[in-house]
Amino acid sequence: MHDLYYKGRIHTRENHVKTGYNTKRTVKLGTEKNPLTLTVTSEERKLAVATLVADNQLFAEITLDSANDENIDELNAVLNKPVTTTFEKTPNRNDPCSCGSNKKYKKCCG
Predict the structure, then answer these.
(1) Buried (b) or exposed (e) across 69-84, using 16+ Cβ within 10 A?
(2) For residue 104, what is the enclosing H or E element?
């Protein structure tokens, strides 16, 4: 089948493959397919990190290496995701005022 058909339109399947559904997305960090890679320096720390990983229902490969520094940056990044800040919306002109005066916002604080 050729790429173009009546009046030069692109086939819908070809258009769907090129745009739309993301088929090349990465797997989320901390899952079975993409576990966290963590390095710790002592056996006690390894047990502490393993319980932290299990409590948060994550998957990790924890290696014990006393020669190198501890590296749990991936775990910290997953656990401490930034939270989007939202602000309270200012009331419309005819809404009751938020100060509690039982007046309209336009007559009180607006």
Answers:
(1) eeebebbeebeeeeee
(2) none
CA distance 41 to 49: 11
CA 17 to chain centre: 25
Beta strands 36-40 and 60-64 are parallel
Report the predicted TM-score, pTM, of the whole model to 2 decimal places. Answer: 0.55
What is the total residue count of the chain? Answer: 110
Name the amino acid, one letter, at 21: Y
Do the beta carbons of residue 35 and residue 63 sit within 8 Å? no
What's the CA angle centered on 31, arms 17 and 64, to 5 degrees?
Answer: 135
Return d(Cα 33, Cα 8) in angstroms, integer: 42
Which is nearest to 59 in space by CA: 81, 20, 30?
A: 30
Token pair, residue 2, equals 């050729």
Gap between the Cα atoms of 89 and 81, Å rounded: 25
Q: Using one digit for the tens of pLDDT, what is the confidence trace for 57-92?
A: 999 999 998 888 899 999 998 999 888 888 888 888
